[in-house]
UniProtKB/TrEMBL annotation, chain A:
InterPro entries: Aconitase/3IPM_dehydase_swvl, AconitaseA/IPMdHydase_ssu_swvl, IPMI_Swivel, LeuD, LeuD_type2/HacB/DmdB. Keywords: Lyase. PANTHER family: 3-ISOPROPYLMALATE DEHYDRATASE SMALL SUBUNIT 1, 3-ISOPROPYLMALATE DEHYDRATASE SMALL SUBUNIT 2-RELATED-RELATED. Heterodimer of the large LEUC/IIL1 subunit and the small LEUD (SSU1, SSU2 or SSU3) subunits. NCBIfam families: LEUD_arch (TIGR02087). Residues 138-185 form the Aconitase A/isopropylmalate dehydratase small subunit swivel domain. One of its GO terms (molecular function) is 3-isopropylmalate dehydratase activity. This is 3-isopropylmalate dehydratase. The keyword Lyase applies.
UniProtKB/TrEMBL annotation, chain B:
The keyword Transmembrane does not apply. This is Aconitase/3-isopropylmalate dehydratase large subunit alpha/beta/alpha domain-containing protein. Gene3D superfamilies: Aconitase, domain 3. CDD domains: IPMI. Keywords: 4Fe-4S, Iron, Iron-sulfur, Lyase, Metal-binding. PANTHER family: HOMOACONITASE, MITOCHONDRIAL, HOMOACONITASE, MITOCHONDRIAL-RELATED. Residues 90-353, 357-523 form the Aconitase/3-isopropylmalate dehydratase large subunit alpha/beta/alpha domain. It holds the Pfam family Aconitase. It comes from Coptis chinensis. It comes from the Eukaryota. GO terms for biological process: L-leucine biosynthetic process. The keyword 4Fe-4S applies. GO terms for molecular function: 3-isopropylmalate dehydratase activity; 4 iron, 4 sulfur cluster binding; metal ion binding.
Length: 257, 538
């Protein structure tokens, strides 16, 4: 894995002149893992780069104080955030016309990612995915109440995950979306204490620290408490309900190839 | 590993495997780890065998008085007691999927259980293509082929196939909208657990069963292994009072959603009881439970339910009912006689408004269809059609009443998409009482509606660009109205989020068939009472 240290290339960080550890983030050139096993949660592979991506997203903060490998299984997300309001329904996340794409087929999985949040009305002036791009530069989505309401389409958390979203931080969730996020392991559905969508703006640089249940907004310099992920965490960490069921001896281990 | 077993009995101690304790309380979801095999027949002990008969509980006092939802889950999980918030492993009676989510579910099933794995029960899976059918979109057509291949491999008993897209009637097995087809084909039975890869699976709660929507991954899991659920607490809605002639179940559910909001019932069960409920479209009520965030809806089964099921199913069923002392999270009471026709304005199902207050809203079109509004109704509306002996009735017929009463023609394009083949045939064959022997189709024609289309989900959710009645571009004629440049549609469907029916800025007003019909006749959102004689209709 090649890393290039480019400590001040991010204008946002430079502007704030932080002397904190974030300035020493190691930039990796790309972050996407192979999408052939979509049920595996991408976070486990956050430090490996397999597929070149066009985006210049800030990679996950991996080079802060040295931590032992066993502590760093997907405990931190770092990147730009995209801010949404209340009741972001599944038709906005992935409009119905794209549902002919089957998420379990790798090339269609990627296509779904390219259409993530394309259903947002034009009141959202900054688009989630820039035209011509197939992934988003925003890896953390911040929402208000009842995120993911509407349909049961699993294509919704899948599209977000395929687009590069690592975590959603919302005030509250609709149940099917939450459950689908956990079952697929595609995005971490985190709940905030209070309305982060009023506090953060699209493009802010944020870090989510799972172990501390904390969201740090580097652009504004504020920190926010999150509700602990709780028992859904082990399922997402394992890579979704199947991986978890295997790990815990529920169903036979190793999918027959 | 457990080393001893205790046979389950009514007063069996509530034993928990050690492993469960570690993960027994998710904040929002539930993932238990009891191996299915062990759970299905015996209660297994890993703690020191207790001498006492009193069930030790981990989450608080054990309730003995249960709500309907709790009872259904108790039975399906072969346990003796449950409390809301608990995780249980339930046996699923029916798993439904369709052309949008089926291929993904199948992909997951094969990947996780193996290319040659067999489904858990070939008779308990019902596969219903219905969403994107009458389209030239290649992927959509391919998805139906994927379903067919899987059903062939697995010898799935219930697959309502369609091959000839040019003429739906040339497909004897094809049904149409999955939720209506499930009901019509006798797959909805009181007391059972039905899961489907569609949020409106809650529709089947009308039959007094637990019915809820799940995603592809959970469904893939069910296909092979069984399912885990969290027990939802129940909200109770008591509706009493004489149902006015101009009101339909849609108005009631819009009232409720407007009251509690789109997240008012998140993770909860919604139970509908009361004298009014017995005589209205229970499926419409339960269908939109998900729009309030609800996990499932239930209506107690009664003689109407049993009559409807006669001849449709040979599977034995056992209804359950909430105990008198069952505890509900909240109870809401409505005097239906005081309600008025409602709409849900764009862009949310809880954006409730009185139809009469929207009479200045100019509209471009009316859409009648979907599992909510294009189906075979559950009851005869006895007041309006006292002579009808039929068990089921077409809610579309309600629409014809409006047209009949006025003898007018639609001012705006009116699209009619029957939910299933059966509904389509009913429209063309059943004479509407009071019309002098005309069928619905004739009445629609005389009112200048569009010819009823091939049955499917249609434009309720937009779909591929060539879907019939999809909202594709704004109407130029709209410049003068307050909704300048935006298309406005009054629809009997269930959701009106931005872009739901296609065009992102299109405005969708959800309404009952009466309100939709009245609006079609005036070209504005219209309270159906404009066309009804407001007399006591006994």
């Amino acid at each position: 894995m090649a890393t290039t240290s480019a400590s001040v290339f991010n204008p946002a960080l430079a502007l704030n002149n932080y002397s904190k550890e974030q300035l020493h983030v190691a930039f990796t050139s790309n972050l996407r893992m192979s999408t052939s096993c979509f049920t595996k949660f991408q976070l486990k592979h956050f430090s490996s780069s397999l597929i070149p991506s066009q985006s210049t997203r800030i990679p996950i903060c991996a080079a802060t104080s040295p931590t032992s490998p066993s502590e760093t299984t997907a405990t931190t997300f770092h990147g730009l955030c995209y801010v949404l309001g209340n009741n972001i329904d599944t038709d906005q996340i992935i409009p119905a016309e794209y549902l002919t794409l089957v998420p379990s087929k790798p090339d269609e999985y990627r296509k779904l990612g390219s259409f993530a949040l394309i259903g947002l009305p034009s009141t959202y002036e900054t688009r989630f995915i820039e035209s011509g791009e197939v992934q988003s530069k925003y890896s953390i989505v911040i929402g208000g109440e009842n995120f993911g309401c509407g349909s049961s389409r699993e294509h919704a958390p899948v599209a977000l995950g395929a687009a590069g979203v690592k975590a959603v931080v919302a005030e509250s969730y609709a149940r099917i979306f939450f459950r689908n996020s956990v079952a697929t392991g595609e995005v971490y559905p985190l709940e905030s204490e209070g309305r982060l969508c009023d506090e953060c703006s699209t493009g802010d640089v944020v870090t989510v620290e799972l172990a501390k249940s904390l969201l740090i907004n580097h652009t504004t310099g504020k920190e926010y408490k999150l509700k602990p992920i709780g028992d859904a965490g082990p399922v997402i960490d394992a890579g979704g309900i199947f991986a978890y069921a295997r790990k815990t001896g529920m169903i036979p281990s190793a999918a027959p190839s | 590993m457990p080393t001893s077993t205790i046979a389950a009995s009514g007063s069996t101690p509530f034993i928990i495997k050690k492993k469960e304790l570690r993960v027994s309380t998710f904040s929002s979801t539930s993932f238990n780890i009891i191996p299915k095999k062990r759970c299905s027949k015996k209660v297994v002990s890993v703690m020191t065998p207790t001498q006492s008969q009193r069930p030790p509980s981990t989450t608080g006092s054990v309730k003995t008085a249960l709500t309907m939802t709790e009872k259904i889950l108790v039975r399906a999980s072969e346990r003796s007691a449950l409390v809301p918030g608990e995780n249980v492993w339930v046996n699923v009676d029916v798993l439904m999927t369709h052309d949008v989510c089926g291929p993904g579910t199948i992909g997951i099933f094969k990947k996780e259980f193996g290319e040659n794995a067999k489904v858990w029960d070939r008779e308990k899976i019902v596969i219903i293509p219905d969403h994107y059918i009458f389209t030239s979109d290649e992927r959509a057509n391919r998805n139906v082929d994927i379903l067919r291949d899987f059903c062939g491999e697995q010898d799935i008993k219930y697959f309502y196939d369609i091959k000839d897209l040019g003429d739906f009637r040339a497909n004897p097995d094809y049904k149409g909208v999955c939720h209506v087809a499930l009901a019509q084909e006798g797959h909805c039975r009181p007391g059972e657990v039905l899961l489907g890869t569609d949020s409106h699976t809650c529709n089947a709660g009308a039959f007094g069963q637990f019915a809820s929507g799940i995603g592809n991954t959970d469904a893939g899991f069910v296909m092979g292994a069984g399912k885990l659920l969290k027990v939802p607490p129940t909200l109770r809605f008591v509706m009493d009072g004489e149902m006015p002639s101009y009101l339909l179940a849609k108005d009631l559910i819009l009232q409720i959603i407007g009251e509690i909001s789109v997240a008012g019932a998140t993770y909860k069960s919604m139970e509908f009881v009361g004298s009014t409920v017995e005589s209205l479209s229970r499926m419409t009520l339960c269908n939109m439970v998900v729009e309030a965030g609800g996990k499932n809806g239930v209506v107690p089964a009664d003689s109407t339910t049993y009559k409807y099921l006669e001849g449709k199913t040979s599977v034995e069923y056992q209804p359950v009912y909430s105990d008198d002392k069952a505890r509900f999270l909240s109870e809401y009471r409505f005097d239906v006689s005081k309600l008025e026709p409602l709409v849900a304005k764009a862009h949310s199902p809880d954006n409730r408004a009185l139809a009469r207050e929207c009479k200045d809203v100019k509209i471009d079109r009316v859409y009648i269809g979907s599992c909510t509004g294009g189906k075979t109704g559950f009851f005869c509306c006895g007041k309006t059609f006292p002579s009808i002996g039929k068990k089921s009735f077409i809610s579309l017929v309600f629409l014809t009443i409006v047209f009949l009463l006025t003898g007018k023609k639609d001012k705006v394009p009116t699209f009619i998409v029957p939910a299933t083949q059966k509904v389509w045939m009913d429209i063309y064959s059943i004479p509407v009482p009071g019309s002098g022997g005309k069928t619905c189709s004739q009445i629609f024609e005389e009112a200048a509606c569009d010819t009823p289309a091939s049955p499917s989900c249609g434009a309720c959710l937009g779909g591929p660009r060539d879907t019939y009645a999809r909202m594709n571009e704004p109407q130029a004629s709209h410049i003068m109205s307050m909704n300048c440049l935006f298309s406005v549609c009054v629809s009997t469907t269930n959701r009106n989020f931005p872009g739901r029916m296609g065009y992102k800025e299109g405005q969708i007003y959800l309404a009952s068939p009466y309100t939709a019909g009245a609006s079609a006749l005036t070209g504005f959102v219209t309270d159906p009472r404009e066309f009804f004689a407001v007399t006591e209709d006994k």
